[in-house]
Design brief:
Length: 117
Amino acid sequence: MRPTLFLLSLPLLAFAAPSSNKQGLTDRFQLQVENLKENVKGFVSGLDDDDDKCPDLKVRCVKDGDITKIVGDIGKQGFCRDGVECKQCHETKNTAECNLKYPKECATKCEAWGSPI
């Protein structure tokens, strides 16, 4: 039996059970509901963790914001959760690093773009 179906059927079982068993079933049902609430809270709070599970991705240096003009890359950099997306944790720093690493090619007009482009 699926857990959800089981949880939904507990109140029905409580009414069908003899009165001596009703309190035990009610207690067990309330315990299951509390456990379910805790699991949901843990899952939701886990979405906002600092350990956000975004992978480190290669950051490419792109000239004039045109993704077809890839100058080079600065290797894998940290990405952080922003809502439901993973974005560069330090986009400004990464952009500065691109312009320092490729001074001729960029001429201070490169931006850091996270993979995949």
